[in-house]
Design a protein that fits this description.
This protein is an all-alpha fold and about 120 residues long. The protein has a domain of about 70 residues. α3 runs antiparallel to α4. The longest helix has 28 residues. It starts with 6 loop residues before the first helix and ends with a helix. The relative contact order is 0.09.
Length: about 120
Amino acid sequence: MAPELSTDEVMATAPSEVPINSRPAIVQPTAILSGPKPDAKPACPYCGRSLTHDRSRCPMIRAKDPNIIEQRIAELKQDAVEHTDNTCAHAIEALKSALLRAKKASSNVNSDDDS
């Protein structure tokens, strides 16, 4: 067994003479440290808020005001230019459907007011 070396002796000794078990361990970064932060929650692709709801309960999908939905579609189209994934395209299609429903609902309300 190798004799125990003091810190001063280890520093003064050439690296090839230092026993392997007395060299300081090199700590490598792990995937855990380089991964996403645990407090970072995914965002809803439709409303952009933290994902705490199903699509059917998304406030943007359920919105009654067509102007709000049109504004979000414009934001997503801007994001789609910057990102090449299909997430924005799917969200835009779903919001267009919601927009048609909102416009239909608002036209029915307006036609009821006229009678």
